[in-house]
Design goal:
Lipocalin; 4 helices; alpha+beta; 26% helix; single chain; 3 domains; elongated; 16 strands
Length: 288
């Protein structure tokens, strides 16, 4: 075989090697893409059904049950206190609506990227105090119940703290995350049937529903329990407002004592700089 023939043969073999190498790289990339896609799909199928719903800070719910008072429980409302998740299998990420301090609405994104453990995912929540810290969203189970958990880690992947959230409903009303917290307060403090006795000893039957509606009061169709104590005069008592935003809206101070809820009139005018004060009992609501 001549030198020219040997050179041609060598070049053909080298060309074939390059083609095989290129084919291997393309196949490998394709397999990696398929593998990554499968991982994302698996994470979607696992996490979305668990995370979907309206979630409220567990510590706050427990404090509401203990104190029977939104004012006394308000110390628990720090940072993210409620979340709303409503995603589907077509979503590339999980969009989470949140209530901060029960006063401001915001949102963050959760990615289908495995977190520090098999039950958590990466998020884009920033830590404004320490840029290297980060948050993950996951879940834990206990007492036959699933809780949403917000994990807070430092740059060394060490857990700083975590917050636990309890599911209160499947969907939020009017896309307002704070409604989730309002719903659970209504349910824990007011929802149910009552015998109403007014200041003139007239009696009637009243029903409060967890969604903020009620029946039995001739002039009132809705009620709203004050849970946000930021941005206004310092509150000294709990308050419920009937027919909020209506011309005939009416507010009362309230106290819950066992199975009886007392509604009080108030004195003072905040618009004139006069602090509100509890006055006389207007209704006694005895739970039936």
């Amino acid at each position: 075989m001549s030198s020219l023939e040997q050179l041609v043969k060598y070049l053909k073999m080298k060309q074939l090697s390059y083609l095989l190498l290129a084919l291997f790289i393309l196949t490998s990339c394709s397999n990696n893409k398929v593998s990554t896609s499968n991982q994302v799909d698996n994470l979607k199928q696992h996490f979305i059904p668990i995370l979907n719903g309206v979630w409220v800070l567990t510590d706050y719910i427990e404090e509401i049950e203990k104190t029977q008072s939104p004012l006394k429980a308000s110390d628990k409302l720090n940072g993210i206190v409620a979340m709303d998740i409503d995603e589907n299998m077509q979503s590339d990420t999980i969009f989470v609506g949140i209530s901060i301090n029960n006063h401001e609405g915001y949102n963050f994104t959760t990615y289908f990227v495995q977190g520090q453990n098999s039950t958590s995912l990466k998020t884009n929540i920033p830590d404004y105090d320490e840029e290297s810290n980060y948050f993950e969203l996951g879940y834990e189970t206990g007492n036959n119940q699933t809780f949403l958990v917000l994990y807070h880690y430092n740059k060394n992947n060490q857990l700083i703290d975590k917050k636990e959230f309890t599911k209160v409903s499947d969907k939020v009303q009017n896309s307002d995350v704070s409604r989730g917290l309002q719903y659970i307060v209504n349910k824990k403090l007011f929802s149910g049937n009552y015998l109403s006795i007014d200041s003139k000893n007239s009696t009637g039957k009243v029903k409060f529903n967890s969604d903020g509606s009620l029946t039995g009061f001739p002039d009132f169709k809705t009620y709203y329990v004050i849970t946000d104590f930021l941005g206004g005069p310092v509150a000294t008592f709990d308050e419920i407002i009937f027919n909020l935003y209506e011309e005939n809206s009416k507010g009362f101070a309230f106290k819950i004592d066992g199975d009886t809820t007392f509604l009080y009139s108030t004195t003072g005018d905040e618009d004139k700089g006069e602090p509100l004060q509890i006055d006389k009992v207007q209704y006694r609501l005895a739970r039936q």
